[in-house]
Every structure is written in structure tokens, then in C-alpha cells.
Amino acid sequence: MAGQKHYLDDNDKEDPPSVSPFMPMFETFRDELDEHQDRRERIVKASRDITALSKKIIFSLQRVHNLQSPIPPPIAKEINARYDSIKDLFTSIAPDLQGINFWRYQKQISSGCQEYVEAISFQHYLETQRLITHQEAQDLVPGGVELTTDDYVLGLFDLTGELMRFGITGMATTSTLPRGVAAEGTVLGGRDILMDLRAVRTSFEGLDISSGSSNWSYLKKDIGKKTEVMRQSVEKVENAVYGMIIRGRERPKGWMPDLSEGQERGREPVESY
């Protein structure tokens, strides 16, 4: 009947929904997974930005013409601004890479670290004509982020491609192979870039990673391809020098050697910008 109230007795009352005792535990898991995904995305984005900025630094350093000389002020100003941006990026993700989390997300930050090593090692070589050590590279990584041995070595592998470009550009513009400053009291000039590339090739070919140590896990995966590309880079400079010596007088100023021969044979192209 309309307007008549109906009263429920105790038997008609609905039971309250039961709460599983496992629910709080799974809510904690959910929160941890959400935090993990957010942290991972921050690191991936920072690594991509570090990679892009490092490539721009390398591109600017390719405009340098002399070895064992300070970076020209206009170029130094340009790359220092990018180094400042990289510092901010490393510092922003440093809290996410503390303790065991560094190894948890090492794969995500690895590409950025390798490209950064390539940039700072290229600048270090231009200024000093020697390779940067692992400790020197570690000191230049901002935010206290750890630089693994794998990322350091793989960054130096990539450096050989930039040294190849620097050497061939120097030959094309000056008709001479870039060479360091002669030591005091010597008649001949300093080491040329091909001598350094050959020394690096010899050292890398003698690198032994067959010990089974877990410290070389990432290096084992990439070293085969990196070694082949490194050898191609050295061969390109050698072939350019041979051509310059044998037929250099016949070529006009500004001649650029043909680097397509290796690719026609099915070789892997050297990493570019």
C-alpha cells in the first residue's frame, strides 16, 4: 500500500560485504608497481634526453680543427650549455638510481651513459690526445650516478667512429691527417690520429671477456657488432690515407673520400647522428 512503511526484521537485513584479508597486501603491491612504472618512465625519458644532448655535443666538437688545443670559445659556450642540461637530467634521476634500484634500471639508463661517455671522451681526446680513464669519466657523471665498466667500454667503442669522422674531415679540408703537437726537443710532429686509432684497435682486440664474470654481461652481448664497426672505422681512415698518399696530388682541394665501399659489401654502417 502506498505510503506504508515496511520494516525489515533482523533476518531480512543484508550482510555487509566481506573484506578479504589479502586485500591490503595486494593494494601495497599495486602501489609498488605504479611507483616502479613511474620511476622507470622518468629514467627512460632522461636517458633519451641525455643521448640527444650528447649527440649534439659531439656534432659541435666535430667543428674543432686541431688536436691538443683548447676548445674554441664559441664551441665551448655551446657545449657547456648542453652539459648543464645533462647535469640537470642526471641529478633529477639520481634518487631513482640509488642502491639496488641502480641495477634494476641499469638497462634503461645505459644508452644515455654510453652516449655521454662518447661525448666527454671525444672532447678529452681533442684537448689532450689521450683516452679518458674510467675514473675520470666517472668524476664527470653528475648526480653521483654510477658509471659501469660496460657503459664506459662501449662508449669508447663508439668513440672510434667519431675519431674516424674527425680524421677524414681533416684530410678533406687540409689535405693532412690530424696530428698532435710535437714533443719538446723532437723534430717530427706528434702522433697522428691513425696511430691512435690503430692503438685503440689493438687494445680492444686484446680485450678478454671470456672469464664468465657477470661484470661483462652487457658487454658480451654488444661487443661483437661494436668490434666490427670499430675495425671498419680504422680501415676507412687507413684507406683514405693510402689514397691521399698515392693519388693525393691528383685530387682537387676539398676532395672527400668515398666511404660507401664498405656498405656495398654488406657491412654495418657506423653509428651516425
Description:
By secondary structure, this protein is mainly α. The protein is built from 9 helices and no strands. It has helices spanning 23-61, 73-93, 100-104, 106-128, 134-139, 149-174, 193-205, 217-247, 261-264. It is elongated and about 110 Å long. The termini are far apart.
Write a brief caption for the model:
The chain is an all-alpha fold. The chain has 9 helices and no strands.
Topology:
Layout: H1 23-61, H2 73-93, H3 100-104, H4 106-128, H5 134-139, H6 149-174, H7 193-205, H8 217-247, H9 261-264
Helix pairs in contact: 1-2, 1-4, 4-6, 6-7, 6-8, 7-8
Helix proportion of residues, in percent?
55-70%
Largest sheet: none
First-to-last CA distance: 83 Å
Number of DSSP helical runs: 9
SS-based structural class?
mainly alpha
Average pLDDT figure: 82
Keywords:
single chain; 273 residues; mainly alpha; 0% strand; elongated
